[in-house]
Amino acid sequence: MRDRADAEEGQPLRADAKRNRDALLEAALAVFTAEGVDAPIKDIADEAGVGVGTFYRRFPTRADLIVAVYHHEVDRCAAAAATLAAQYPPFEALAHWIDRFMDLVVTKRGLATALHSEAPAYVELRADFEARLVPPLKGLMDAAHGEVRADVSAAELWRAVGLLCAPATPENFSEARRMVSVLVNGLRFGAA
Amino acid sequence: MRDRADAEEGQPLRADAKRNRDALLEAALAVFTAEGVDAPIKDIADEAGVGVGTFYRRFPTRADLIVAVYHHEVDRCAAAAATLAAQYPPFEALAHWIDRFMDLVVTKRGLATALHSEAPAYVELRADFEARLVPPLKGLMDAAHGEVRADVSAAELWRAVGLLCAPATPENFSEARRMVSVLVNGLRFGAA
DNA sequence: TTTATATACGGAATGCAATTCCGTTTATCA
DNA sequence: TGATAAACGGAATTGCATTCCGTATATAAA
């Protein structure tokens, strides 16, 4: 079974390259968890036991690495939308999914901030996350049609939630939760 | 009349030092407007016609410079609270002041982002703005007591609005306005 | 096997902005 | 009109990010 990188690139990686790529992903997860997604590239390369040149050949931008490291997590979050939609009434399902998304970004140190960075290397990161997470959110919003303000798009709601999570950490999460709850209330209050 | 820097420092600056400080502030305003508050320090020093050493002697951190450059604007925004409180019913005054604050941060390229940066040099910037803007906001919220959710503090509301403005530019401002309006609606909706 | 070669490797070299350092200059005041 | 504290400029240093390139190796054809 070809893995994701193969499937996307076309040409399979040489055995040593694949080994190093996997080592980099594992190292990056460890370093990201310890130091955040802005950790020096050298730290990650060292942890993986490869040179920085090898790192850059595989992940030209930091965003490429972040996307790869959290690929599965993002997919699981996207998939949760369907489950929640089946379990709860429309508006509740929407609210629960937003919680689920908040857990995703707040748990990964610095991810919420990186997601909204203006740096060119990161616009691709936001685009990737957005492309995979906004459609499920849009589905939930459509299902709650009539209970949510009609002038708010899924994409901007998604961005707003991410922004409110930017300063949050796992220990200091209650402010972000409260502000998002205010936002979600506003979403319902202004329903057409 | 001693100027603000004198008043805060204690010792008046030597004539050449004051001249350079003023030149740096003027240059910084121009450069910030053109390139944003993250512009290279060298650009600002060059524009002012001084060496970078002179810059750093006067403004040890970039935050010091930003605070000084926008000092008057921040004061005017703080003062607007009283005016608005006298002109409008409590909740409306609150909403108007939030608009006023948004104008302040969105007009200054990159300011909203810097305001929420995690970098150590910037925590002082947020603290300064927060110390001068949250009290007036708190006054407005207290006046609208009963019409706003009681579990939301002025400080966190202030931070939330700033966060939602982070990606906004003067041209692309409507999304931030809409999201803040949703937030403000939520504030009222959940009123005790 | 062997060998040709496309890939990949490591880490030195380079680039760039932030920040510090220090020998020289100047404003101030006795 | 000195003495001296304060300030000046910009070279040097630092700390990454990113590129470059000579060497090594996996792969597959002979």
Describe this structure in words.
- The structure is a homodimer of 192-residue chains.
- The first copy, chain A, is 74% helix and 0% strand.
- Chain A is an all-alpha fold.
- In chain A, α5 (62-69) runs parallel beside α9 (120-143) and α7 packs across α10 (154-165).
- The longest helix of chain A is centred in the last third of the chain and has 24 residues, at 120-143.
- The radius of gyration of chain A is 18 Å and the shape is elongated.
- Chains A and B meet through α10 and α11 of A and α10 and α11 of B.
- Chain A binds a DNA duplex (30 and 30 nucleotides) through residues 13-17, 20, 40-42, 45, 50-54, 56-57, 60, 62.
Quick structural summary:
With 192 residues, chain A is mainly alpha-helical.
How far the N terminus sits from the C terminus of chain A, by CA atoms, comes to: 49 Å
> Given the structure, what is the number of helices of chain A?
11
The level of helicity of chain A is over 70%
**What is the typical, i.e. mean, pLDDT of chain A?**
94
Strand content of chain A: under 5%
Low-confidence blocks of residues of chain A: 1-7
Radius of gyration of chain A: 18 Å
Secondary-structure element pattern of chain A, one letter each: HHHHHHHHHHH
* Number of DSSP-assigned strands of chain A: 0
Largest interchain contact: A-B, 28 and 28 residues
Could you state the oligomeric state of the chains shown? homodimer
**Which structural class fits the helix and strand makeup of chain A?**
mainly alpha
Shape call of chain A: elongated
Largest sheet report of chain A: none
